Automatic annotation (TrEMBL):
It comes from the Bacteria. Pfam families: Phage_connect_1. This is Phage head-tail connector protein.
Amino acid sequence: MELGKLKQLLGIAGTDQDALLQFCIDSVTETITGYCHVDTIPGGAMNTAYRMAMDLYRNENLGSTDSSSGTIASITEGDTAVSYKENTDYTQSLLKNYRAQLSRYRKLSW
């Protein structure tokens, strides 16, 4: 996967997000190679890999210093307390959303 292509697909200019995007690339590469039991991303799965990296970057809100990354669970007005519920559905389903596309590249492992 190429950092430049991912930046172009996401519409990102400049280099401030490069470390986060490289993390997405590394994460997706690790997920795909681990699931498929291969050393590199298969050529036919490259577009799927880019889609996964884009989803990871957008849905994980990477680079945000805001601690409110989840949805609001409760609000208290007296002394102002807000609690957030973390959205774990996405992180647990990243591979599930692309399992059908990646299964054809999966190799048998002992």
